[in-house]
Design brief:
Oligomer: single chain
Low-confidence stretches: none
Structural class: mainly alpha
Strand content: under 5%
Shape: extended
Order of helices and strands: HHHHHH
Number of helices: 6
Largest sheet: none
Helix content: over 70%
Amino acid sequence: MQNNNLPTQEEYQQLAKEYEPKRPLLKNCIRAFFAGGIICTIGQFFQWFYMTYFDFTEVTASNPTVASMIIISMLLTGFGVYDHLAQWAGAGTIVPVTGFANTITSAAIEHRSEGYVLGVGGNMFKIAGPVITFGVFAAFVVAIVRILVEKLGVI
């Protein structure tokens, strides 16, 4: 027997939508833009630093730059700073290297009580596995497209 006082699914969705707080879309976009820009500027600083003081080329400075950004992101995640930054900046902190390092480090910290192998290692790679798989597959597809384009003489 159905209670006639209960709202239907559509009525409930409409009621819930009325009470849902409005998101400040423009403010969130501006925050994300500046936070992502600052993270990229820090990465650019590291690349300049390695090129200037260690005589790396633009290509060879990339690896230590990425490593530096990963280490900083991991440390900030471990100290709880990156999470506060991500709450404030939103999508701006998902700059590929730092966002990925934050995700992996967060999973490791969260599951460390389950042990190093099954807890930390297992749960870190639950997150990293699909990302790595997608990256390898995307690189494969791009390589095939490039080979086909070169063979057809478009370039």
